[in-house]
Amino acid sequence: MVVGNREWDRRNFAKPRQLTFANKFNVLCHPNWLRRVMLPNGLPTMGNLDPYLPKGEKSALGAMKFISEQLDTLLDWDKLAKIREQWPGKLILKGVLHPDDAVRAVKLGLDGIVVSNHGGRQLDGALSSIEALQIIEPEVRGQISILLDSGIRRGSDIVKAIALGADGVMLGRATLFGVASGGEVGAYRVLDILEEELVRCFNLMGVQRIDELSSSHVYLP
Predict the structure, then answer these.
(1) Which residues are catalytic?
(2) Angle at the Cα of 204 (from 199 to 205), degrees rounded to 5?
(3) pTM of model > 0.70
C-alpha cells in the first residue's frame, strides 16, 4: 500500500500533526465550537482506538500517527490469503476498482468488497467508484457482498448505487460533516436528510421499494 500525495495535508499542517498559523487562527474564530468541544473535553479523540493508543497520544492527531505506524505498506494478495485463513469472522476488502480484483476476492473467500477510490485523495485520475461498480458488479453478482464508497452525499447517490448493483453504501464522510457541525445530533440529522431525499427520489421515480431498483432506472451513456 502506498499513501497518496496529500496536498491538503501540506497546505494545512506546518509540520506533522501541527496546524499552520492560519488554521490555528481559524479555530480561534469559532468560539462556539471551542465552548462545545475543546473546553469541556479537550482535543477530540478517536474513542474506538483509545484502549490501544499509547499514553499521551489519545488525540485524533495521535491516533493518526498510531494508525500510520500500524499500516503494512507491503500488504498483498498472499498476505490477505493468510489473514483469511486465520480470521474466521467477516472480512471485507476496500479499494477495489477492477473486476479482476473483485473476482480474486471471491476466490479468496472474502465476505465483501468495497468499490472505492478513497474519495479521489490517493490518485486524482483514478476511475470513479460509480463507474467501477458498473464493470465490477456483472462479474461477481450474487457471489460476494458489494458496498460502494466515495462521494455519497445525497439520497439520489444511494439510489444510483443500488440501481447499479451495490448491496449498500458507506456514509462516513457525510455523517462526519454532521458530527463536525452538531455532534451526535448532527450525525442523526444527516441520516434524516438522506432518508428524506431517498424517499422523495423514490416517489419521483415511481418506485415503492428499494429492491425494485435496477440499472434500467439509470441512464448509462
Answers:
(1) 118
(2) 95
(3) yes
